[in-house]
Known about the structure:
With 429 residues, this protein is α/β, with parallel strands linked by helices. The chain is built from 17 helices and 14 strands. The strands form 3 sheets. Strands 1-9-8-7-4-2-3 form a 7-stranded mixed beta sheet, sandwiched between helices. A 5-stranded mixed beta sheet has the order 10-11-14-13-12. A two-stranded antiparallel sheet has the order 5-6.
Amino acid sequence: MTAQPMGFDTLQIHAGARPDPATGARQTPIYQTTGYVFRDADHAAALFNLQEVGFIYSRLTNPTVAVLQERIATLEGGAGAICCSSGHAAQIMALFPLMQPGCNVVVSTRLYGGTVTQFSQTIKRFGWSATFVDFDDLAAVEAAIDDNTRAIFCESIANPGGYITDLKAIAGVADKAGLPLIVDNTSATPYLCRPIEHGATLVVHSTTKYLTGNGTVTGGCIVDSGKFDWSASDKFPSLSAPEPAYHGLKFHETFGPLAYTFHGIAIGLRDLGMTMNPQAAHYTLMGIETLSLRMQRHVENAVTVANWLEKDPRVDFVTYAGLPSSPYYGRVESVCPKGAGALFTFAVKGGYDACIKLVDALEIFSHVANLGDTRSLIIHSASTTHRQLTEEQQKAAGAAPNVVRLSIGIEDSADLIADLDQALAKATA
Length: 429
Ligand SMILES: *Cc1c(COP(=O)(O)O)cnc(C)c1O
């Protein structure tokens, strides 16, 4: 092999995988096992002491899941990755080593609806809190950081509103405060955006979406850049101070750039148990093999459909960062140069009632809660995913009552436009 770094299209097929040493199987086998036989008692003891890396029990590690972890870490340009059972599990797992009761995370107002609920309500049960800020206002982000802040959290391309975060600027604020920046890269995928190159410390994914790509399994992943100095302050004792559960082992001192990844497996998965199963990892590995091809078509179709909708008199506005009319169009080139993704919203003349009629009249578009599928999908966020939010929160998240969200699939764009055309006719008649 040449020494030149491999391209994305090669890595999405090969990174982390090798022919199965036992059988030569070329495709990564589904290691459907919970346990692994130890060579002898010393081997078992070394594994349990974290002195040797290997497979102990599938709540912590599994060979099929390990291939996926290496694949995603490679595509994101990270040092290591931890897969878990869903995107929401990944968010809790990502915060867990950083937070303690009384600590907070400064987060963008523009987030996936479920994340807003998780951060504004559920994490309070752990004694954690989230401070929501407009991430276009850097002074406000800085002002929201206090002595108890342990992380900054945003999405690269925010779901659902066609919003793009200025990752470099936010990473600058995080750096200055000595805090890790966590970026949810679900909507962009590493094909469109690699947050670590913009200064992110950790990247989280709902692998349920584009990475798997076909709406078959839920999963999540946390990628660690390996670049954060956990020992620079006393804010992150889980990573820098002696760990009582491992005889006083210090993760950062022992594992260096892999400290966060090891902690995520040895403490996070071991004790929270939000484990990805090998079947899910298999489906996601299948999906990732074609990620770049799918994302190219997703973006191409999204641009075509968004342009058509923007010119349609039955539509009030389209919020897609890939349209020159978007206030975030200028950020595409620096944050996600291969395209602004395939999720956007548009406002239907006739408001809430017209949106409901539109959703019911569509034939190719499915009315579903997921996104990032090969199929085109639609949802009226205000009556579904963003239903638990106040109208003010809905608007801030780009999910006002007169707006529907599209997840543009990889079908023929002419068919998607024809479907929207007939449904808009019924909705606004
Ligand atoms: C879907 C989604 C999540 C949550 O992931 P699940 O796999 O559904 O738990 C988090 N963030 C974003 C941007 C998402 O689209």
